[in-house]
Amino acid sequence: MNKTSRGLIGLLAFLLVWEAFSRSGFVAQQYLPPPSTVFTRFFELLGDGSFLLDVIASVLAWAIALGISVAIAVPLGLLLGSVRGIRVATRAIIEFLRPIPSVALIPLAIVLVGAGPETKISLAVYAAVWPILFNTIYALDEIDPLLVDTARSFGLGRARVMFTVMLPNSAPFVLTGIRMSAAVALILVVSTEFLAGGSGGLGNFVLDASTGAGRMDLVLAGTLTAGIIGYLINEALELLHRRGLRWSVTGKDAS
């Protein structure tokens, strides 16, 4: 039995337990609808134009945030990882900023950039930069110094060593950081939509569904949609890792 089959069996078992518990009467279905109801609402929502626009808004904000994070974190990580003086000089400010929860910055972000899409994108960028940055720095620390010395002995300058030796060898670590940041960025986008409101997206849909009539079936259907999007993103990045960086994947992982 392969990994996919075991995963599907585990998921089916979880859904069956959820269905039985929800219909047992221990909890009113108004507060915990069974998965059969949630999936019915989910498929109905796929035909709802306004819901699809919310999905597109969240995915677009996620893609922009992740792209900006990569554009910032990879060059900065290469710089900090290769120039020790700059790394030491910036360590204090980085260690001060890194632990700050992004959601705690929502009021500040609203004041600075308003309550539009810029808020969720900015906060997602702030949260997603760190995994990529530290994975890039760690990757440079793990490079065999002999590779760098050999490249320099052939007369390659710092820039060529960076792009021909350091960057290719750090690529698997960087992509791992991007996978981590992809999940973080999606969480922050949806969370900011839910907490800040007013910018559309899945989080705003869940907020609207949870207030007023309190439609938990719609809340869980929206949550299910976010989970499916996150799963598909992770699978796409794993596939990119296996196919694009095949040389860095073990035989078991490549199968």
From TrEMBL:
Gene3D superfamilies reported in the protein's UniProt record: MetI-like
SUPFAM superfamilies: MetI-like
Residue spans crossing the bilayer: 55-80, 92-115, 121-140, 161-192, 212-233
Places the protein is found: Cell membrane
InterPro entries referenced in this protein's UniProt entry, alphabetically: MetI-like, MetI-like_sf
Primary location group: membrane
Pfam families in UniProt: BPD_transp_1 (PF00528)
Keywords linked to the UniProt accession: Cell membrane, Membrane, Transmembrane, Transmembrane helix, Transport
Name of this chain's protein: ABC transporter permease
